[in-house]
Amino acid sequence: MAGIEGAGEVVAVGVGVTGLEPGARIVGVAIAGGAFAEYIVLPAVAVVPLPAGWADEQALGLVVSWSTALAALKPLGGLAAGQTVLIHAAAGGTGQAAVKLAKHYGATVIAAASPGKHEVVRALGADHVIDSRGGDIVAEVLALTGGAGADLVLESVGGTALEAGLAAAKRVTGRVVVYGLAGGEAAITDWDLVYKHQMHLIGLNIGVLAQAVPQVFGEVMGEMFRLLAAGVLGPGQPATYELAEGPRALPELETRATVGKLALLP
Ligand SMILES: NC(=O)c1ccc[n+]([C@@H]2O[C@H](COP(=O)([O-])OP(=O)(O)OC[C@H]3O[C@@H](n4cnc5c(N)ncnc54)[C@H](OP(=O)(O)O)[C@@H]3O)[C@@H](O)[C@H]2O)c1
């Protein structure tokens, strides 16, 4: 969702807030939005310190996109070294983090992206790249996995991609983590799960995860900061726009023209 993540300097803190002072530089998320602005009100529990030496915009993704990728791969997706993961929208803000993390954890990565973005995902370490616009994703994943299917599928596209993700997952032990529906809603029935796609179907909303199982979110963020310290994840390189150019950035998202994160500079 656009406009929920913001980074910058704390100008004031609410009554009862501890551990945060005006002047601190943070990145955080407001689920109801508000980041298309010079000032944003963020819940104190939803901010983390900006890594030292990073520009504000370089940290965009840390609390939403990167944590979603990490949660999808590890606590929810149970990815282990040697397994194969299919990552939809691999050149996007969340997808790029997922490719880097999955390679770090020793997985074989099959990345789906529009043709003009293939070099980006290859450079991140993807082992195989599939055309998300014209390719037959199921046939290609089955061919690349000797007919077995992927151990894990990260599904954020929705529409017909949901069905493709289910069909591309390994029978019985495969997991499909669904966290987005940029391409529209799709339905799946109990018949599908019993007779057609026998695998683990897992829904992920990082905001709900943080509220419902804060210990899991804490572990995800703890792992994230370890990976930052180890240099596995570095500063993001978002495409930047002046705040007033926001109306130009949104159609680019809609037409799938973007690569990675977009940042509006206040
Ligand atoms: N549940 C959560 O907690 C959570 C957290 C973060 C993000 N998300 C969701 O995850 C998805 C990815 O987030 P992101 O920040 O990585 O987005 P992004 O950078 O904008 O990436 C979106 C990419 O999805 C692909 N796509 C395929 N079909 C599409 C369609 N019909 N319409 C639009 N895009 C399509 C496009 O890549 P190609 O053209 O290369 O195929 C597009 O560039 C979004 O749907 C977002 O809402 C959910």
Structure, briefly:
By secondary structure, the protein is an alpha/beta fold.
Would you spell out the secondary-structure blueprint of this structure?
Blueprint: E1 5-9, E2 25-29, E3 47-49, H1 65-76, E4 84-87, H2 93-104, E5 108-113, H3 118-123, E6 128-131, H4 137-144, E7 152-155, H5 160-168, E8 175-178, H6 190-196, E9 200-203, H7 206-212, H8 214-229, E10 239-242, H9 246-254, E11 262-265
Parallel strand pairs: 4-5, 4-7, 5-6, 7-8, 8-9, 10-11
Antiparallel strand pairs: 1-2, 2-3
Helix pairs in contact: 1-2, 1-8, 4-5, 7-8
Bound molecules: NADP nicotinamide-adenine-dinucleotide phosphate.
Oligomer: single chain
Helix content: 25-40%
Query: Within the CATH hierarchy, at the fold level, what is the topology of the largest domain?
Result: Rossmann fold
CATH superfamily of the largest domain, called what?
A: NAD(P)-binding Rossmann-like Domain
- Gyration radius (Cα, Å) is 19 Å
Structural class, from secondary structure content? alpha/beta
User: How many strands, what sense, and barrel or not for the largest sheet?
Assistant: 6 strands, parallel
Count helical runs. 9
What distance lies between the first and last C-alpha atoms, to the nearest angstrom? 19 Å
Instruction: Please state the second-level CATH architecture of the largest domain.
Output: 3-Layer(aba) Sandwich
The fraction of residues in strands falls at 15-25%
Q: Give the C-level CATH assignment of the largest domain.
A: Alpha Beta
Number of strands: 11
Description:
The longest helix has 16 residues, at 214-229. It contains nine helices and eleven strands. The model has no long low-confidence stretch (mean pLDDT 95). 32% of the residues lie in helices and 18% in strands. It folds into two domains: 5-60 and 236-265, Medium-chain alcohol dehydrogenases, catalytic domain (Quinone Oxidoreductase, Chain A, domain 1, Alpha-Beta Complex), CATH 3.90.180.10; 65-207, Rossmann fold (3-Layer(aba) Sandwich), CATH 3.40.50. By secondary structure, the chain is an alpha/beta fold. The structure holds NADP nicotinamide-adenine-dinucleotide phosphate. NADP nicotinamide-adenine-dinucleotide phosphate binds at residues 1, 64-65, 68, 89, 91-95, 113-114, 117, 132, 156-157, 179-180, 182-183, 204-206, 253, 256, 258.
